[in-house]
Amino acid sequence: MHNKVVYAAMKALNEAGLPVLRFNFRGAGLSQGEHDQGRGEAQDVRAALDWLDREFHLPIIFAGFSFGAAVGLRAACPDKRVTALLSLGTPVEAEGRAYQYAFLRDCRKPKLFVSGGHDQYGPRAALEQVVAAAADPKQLILINKADHFFDGHLHDLRQAISTWIGALSL
Questions:
Q1: Whole-number Å distance between alpha carbons of 143 and 160
Q2: pTM exceeds 0.85
Q3: Checking CA distances to 107, which of 27, 69, 128, 131 falls within 20 to 30 Å?
Q4: Are 73 and 101 in contact (CB under 8 A)?
Q5: Which DSSP letter does residue 25 get?
Q6: What share of the chain is helix, strand, coil (3-state, %, to 5)?
C-alpha cells in the first residue's frame, strides 16, 4: 500500500479526478489474515470493489501493481462495475511462481500494461506474449531502462497512466 509504484499510480489517478482506494492484502502490513496464494486475495479485491461502489457510485478503474495486478485483473475483469484495467509491473515469473493470464482473452475492457523494460519478474518477451493474447482494447507501454519498481522512472510511469486515463471515455 505504501510502495512507491502504488503511490505514483495513486497520484496520477487522483490528478485525473478519480477517487483511489489503496489497501494491503490479507497478511501484508498491518492487515489481518494470512497470505492465501491469490485465492483469498481475490476476495480482498472484490471487497474493495464493493466498498468503492457503495461510497462513490462511479465507474471503477482497477489498478494493481505486481502481485496485486495479477490477482486484481482476475477479480476485476468479470466485474461489470469495472470499466478499465491498469496493470503495473505485471508479473509473469516471480519467485518460482508462473502467473497465468488466459482469462484476459475474454476481457474486452480497456487495458493498460506498464512495465519496465528490465522488469525481473515480467521479462519483455513473456509479457509481450501475455498482452498479445489478451482481448482488445489493450496497450503495452515498456519503460525501457526501468526495472520492476520503476526506479528512476516514476515520472514516466505517472505520465503513461495520465495519458491513458485522458484517452479513456469515462
A1: 9
A2: yes
A3: 27
A4: yes
A5: P
A6: 40, 15, 40
Query: Kind of pairing, strands 97-98 and 93-94?
Result: antiparallel
pLDDT digits (tens, 9 = 90+) for 16-72: 999 999 876 545 555 566 655 556 678 889 999 999 999 999 999 999 999 999 999
Report whether 9 contacts 63 (CB < 8 A). yes
Q: Which CATH number fits domain 4-167: 3.40.50.12780, 3.40.50.10750, 3.40.50.1820, 3.40.50.300?
A: 3.40.50.1820
Give the torsion through C-alpha atoms of 103, 106, 107, 109, to 10 deg.
170
Name the percent of the chain lying above pLDDT 70.
89
Phi, psi (rounded to 5 degrees) for 93: -140, 120
99 touches 93 (CB < 8 A): yes
Which of residues 170 and 79 earns the better pLDDT score? 79
